[in-house]
Amino acid sequence: MADQPSSFLTRRLLPGVTVARAIVVVLMALSLGLHLYNIGSIGDANAYYTATVKSMLQSWRNFFFAAAEPGGSVTVDKPPLGFWIEAAFAALLGVSGFSTSLPNILAGVFAVPVLYALVRRHAGELAGLVAALAMTLTPVFVATNRNNTIDGMLVFCLLLAAWAFVRATESGRRRWLLLGAFLVGLGFNIKMLQAYLPLPAFYALYFLGSREGWGRKLVNLALATALLLAVSFSWAVAVDLTPPDGRPYIGSSGDNSVMSLIFGYNGLSRVFNRGMGSPQAAQAPAGPGTFPAPQAGMQRGAPGFGQQAVDACAGLNEGAACSFSVDGRTVAGTCVRSPSADQLVCTPQGGPAPAFQRGTPVMGTPPQASRGNVPFSNETGYPGIFRFFTAPLSKQMSWLLPFALVGLVVSLVGRRVRLPLEEGMHRALVLWGGWLVTCLVFFSFVSGIFHAYYTIMLAPALGAVVGTGTAQFREWTRTHPWTGVLLVLAAAGTLGYQAFAFRQYGESLSVLALAALLLLAGGLFLLIPARARRVAVPVILAAMLVAPAYWTGMTVAAGADQNLPTAYPGAQQFRPGPGARAGASAPARAGRANADLVAYLQANTQDVEYLVAVPSSQTGAPLVLATGRPVLYMGGFGGQDRVVTAEDLQKMVAEGRLRYVLYGGMGGRQDIAAWLQTSCTVVPEFSATGTAAPGGPADRGTVLYRCGN
Asked: Residue 451: inside a domain, yes or no?
């Protein structure tokens, strides 16, 4: 097919500029517009990552180790390459949510021509253009790139790796294969093991498609694997070989080792449900600033707080900050969807949604316990073959998935396979079909830590499979008109699924009326003479693109969740108003530090190193962004690391490095809690009495302690 391109798309407009290339420029402009529209709504983006970048710019030590706070007490829970790039942009533009998100935005825009070129190479101009358009209109692709989570840069890096593997397959030259392995290794240093997901497709493309001998190919793949591992683990080995007292604690590792971070928190914990907590975490005794322990049989982080947890999310949307009072203390968290009822519930940081029965909290063991208490099930649902087709995950990237799977099966059945694979379409199916199916299977069945924005990994492969399928149907309808029936059925099934998805999120089906009319028109075009029939496939494709285009547009118009990027939640959960996702200023304010607390700490800590010690980055990141001062994250990202002990704190106080500790919340460490109660005094103004601004650190049930002079 690549040898028979459309004469219209290859027509020259200017020297070196064809119609297809001009369309690619238009698609890049469209992608840039989608990424930048309403960009102010992201605020500080993910404050944890923005604070990390701010910290990295304060010293070369912090930069190399990717320290999460200026004092260098603990690292971010990811490898450093993506944050090195974000820090470079922030050094030029200043630290902000936008500057740290800009590398991902640019990665999303430039992914358009890269995907076009890759798909065009095997399947022709039309396939390349459709692939680029489908990826551009994938909601999670835009939502994730409009954030400083590093998945956008990872996807772009993997697209470049795919290009290198394609060149290796076509040329038989080892250097391209090694380049591909090197790029995947760089991807590993952006997001660790997630970078390996398309690797089976890359290796299969080279092994099945290259004309070299089988033995030589095995040797080359072995060399490429050795290089891949060397690049992947280079930073990890360098850090682990550094004495612990000469570097920050490795955040979320559990034992201060990057290897444990790779294979534990960022490895097995992503695949298997190993619980939300950490064996190192211990409950603190009840005391000032701590909440009562959850009732027996109830999951920690999701206690039966009652109707007030539901009322706290009235008028808000999924992902919005919320707070309510329990026994005179304030609980702050995020509005999440209860898996057992159609309502939002204010859930403390880090916990899954409490189970409810139509407005009434269920005390005791929640119903989801029988399904394994899957982390973040309110965001990604439960493992199973229908995970991508049902709420809450279906809105992210599944709008064209039925058509893609039909096209993939039809293309595989309709062509005779000969090894080595020399036909472009066969190579495309191995590369893009392998990438898509691997990610689909993996994410469908993982039961560990899984966020919706991880599904950006499927966006390029989904677009490529849709593009190759569209080109395949166009060729077949020209030579075998009866295949038009199969095309219409595949498109009708896809539109039927899109209507089902719209209903899942309470969205009006009126948007799909245009899609139905386009499908009808496309079907009629298939019945007319062959010369006019060529417009049928583009019209049918346009029908299927109505839903993802609408959802992507609503995603950028409604605003973005700063911490966990996600697609537009649908009319059922989107309610414009105070704190709604549509307002750029309300969500941005929710995660900012309390001004009174900041002013107090600044005025009383100018002669000490640390502004304050806090339980975790959830409390500390806004303080870092507000002051740029060292803030000791005693428990790392989620409060479960043993970054310091009570003895360490006592020593720091004695040395004049630390004076204030902000402590409390849903749990804590016994040694620290006991030391605070016996050696420090409570600062009454900030003792969780409700004086802090909503969303500020002191509004999370914490108490400010003064220790020493």
From this structure: no
